């Protein structure tokens, strides 16, 4: 049975907010974010890289932005401690996380040539 997190409300666009972690699209999203972020927590000066301590975080809320759910640019890799710290406070980290993602994309594009 797929692991999922249930929310009691529907998103603004009317999509169900259930997350099915085994959904191929969601797996691909998480894998691409991990690769782009070099399998390390992206919080400044945090070097956590143990796979069991890392989580992909949606920069703009999963529930409130269904059109961005699988957009790799809306994901960032964080350790469990920093993920817990930012969850629910995404608006405060939007600018810095967007800058980090853009930097990582440029580095990733430069390495793939």
Please give a structural write-up.
With 113 residues, this protein is α+β, with helices and mostly antiparallel strands. It has one domain. It has three helices and four strands. It is globular. The protein starts with a strand and ends with a helix. Mean pLDDT is 85; it is low at 1-16.
Keywords:
3 helices, 37% helix, disordered N terminus, 113 residues, globular, alpha+beta
Strand residue percentage: 5-15%
The major pleated sheet works out as: 2 strands, antiparallel
- Total count of strands: 4
Per DSSP, the total helix count is 3
- Domain module tally: 1
Strand order of the largest sheet: 1-2
Overall pLDDT, averaged? 85
Low-confidence stretches: 1-16
Rg from Cα = 14 Å
Separation of the first and last Cα atoms: 40 Å
Task: Give a brief outline of the structure.
With 113 residues, the chain is an alpha+beta fold. It has three helices and four strands. It has a two-stranded antiparallel sheet with strand order 1-2. A two-stranded antiparallel sheet has the order 3-4.
Write the layout of secondary structure elements.
Layout: E1 4-5, E2 19-20, H1 24-36, E3 54-58, E4 75-79, H2 80-86, H3 90-111
Antiparallel strand pairs: 1-2, 3-4
